[in-house]
Amino acid sequence: MLRDEVTARLDRFDLRRQPDAGGLKRAAVAVVLVEADQPGEAAFLLTKRTPKLRAHGGQWALPGGRVDPGETIEQTALRELHEELGILASTDDILGTLDDYPTRSGYLIAPVVVWAPGITMTPNPAEVAGAYRIGCGELFRDGSPEIVAIEESDRPIIRLPLPVATVNAPTAALLFQFREVALAGRDTRVDHYEQPVFAWR
Fold this sequence. Notes:
Elements: H1 2-12, E1 25-35, E2 42-49, E3 60-61, E4 64-66, H2 73-85, E5 94-97, E6 101-102, E7 107-115, E8 128-135, E9 146-148, E10 157-161, E11 166-168, H3 171-183
Parallel strand pairs: 1-7
Antiparallel strand pairs: 1-2, 1-4, 2-3, 2-8, 5-7, 6-7, 9-10, 10-11
């Protein structure tokens, strides 16, 4: 069963959590495994931020946000999932976590993998312009990920071609590690991947 397989892979993964955020603001996102449009297949949830948001408006993202005082990253991921998409999941639905990813915009993002197959999404229009189920097989497309050099950094950027758009880091980096670790069972790091210059603000 996929849930058991993903849980076992995440349990075996040598997780790298940064105990000192080094001045970065802690944030968490939910990588949510759901049923795909085709029965028996798995998908993940991807949102497009409403253009009205001051930061990251119009960008493709996983449900998530800043960790509030007193919260764990797991609590933050579940809270944001409920606030953004109306999905109420519990700590029993958490399968594991992936590496922290530092962003150019000043955040240290912790991805939390959540199992929520039989859900109905109710996107919050104040935050989410659209929410999509993307089949996990799309993460394994030929030529994916795209690794591109840029003049502004000595690190290459990573992006993922998906049916709705080509998605950039940080979301692309987080989803690529999810693919490698949770779905393929490979210990793959992504914190060396750069974000496009427009995401540096």
